[in-house]
Design goal:
With 144 residues, the chain is α+β, with helices and mostly antiparallel strands. The protein has two domains: 1-49, no CATH class; 53-141, Enolase-like, domain 1, CATH 3.30.390. Helix content is 21%, strand content 27%. It has helices at residues 26-41, 108-117, 128-131; strands spanning 12-15, 19-22, 53-58, 61-67, 74-78, 87-92, 99-105. The structure holds flavin-adenine dinucleotide. The site of flavin-adenine dinucleotide has 9 residues, from helix 1.
Amino acid sequence: PRHVRAVGDVALRRSARHGWVPGGHWDGALRAPATLAADLLRVGAPPEDPAPYVFSTQLGHELALFGLPGGEDDVELRGDPADGDGWTALWFRPGTSTCTAVLTVDRPRDVGAARRLFAGAALPRLDRALARDLARGLRDTALV
Ligand SMILES: Cc1cc2nc3c(=O)[nH]c(=O)nc-3n(C[C@H](O)[C@H](O)[C@H](O)COP(=O)(O)OP(=O)(O)OC[C@H]3O[C@@H](n4cnc5c(N)ncnc54)[C@H](O)[C@@H]3O)c2cc1C
């Protein structure tokens, strides 16, 4: 039996989609206590598995990161950071269509798409060539 439970920055959470997810964001500190209490009391629905995410404004740019990028992952760019317009970086398991993380920079449309892509039971699979094309909706590049 588990005798010690923890949430927030100090805790690692097991996600079916992302593996071990570290704390480090206020969203986990805010929402996870209710999940922990429900688990202790054996009430309520099974724990949610929200995608890890971070948002921030840096140097006037709106950043949002969904998922967990892996150090060895391939990175695809959607849009050109040199343009000054919005762009998005996508991480993929090496040589595969399995997307592990999405970082949007001034791309509010991609924020909604990324949130939905990481709402499924498994990591999303995307057509990498299509995903590089800003003219395509990010969600429309998902492989079924
Ligand atoms: C500089 C900075 C910027 C950040 N910016 C963002 C951001 O923009 N967006 C975002 O979502 N998150 C941000 N975070 C992360 C966010 O602050 C944390 O994820 C969140 O505060 C974690 O909450 P927590 O309750 O797990 O831990 P904490 O907020 O660290 O709370 C732990 C508490 O335990 C207390 N404590 C420690 N040891 C003991 C002890 N032995 N006995 C009693 N009390 C003890 C500490 O004093 C503290 O009050 C930022 C963090 C930092 C440091």
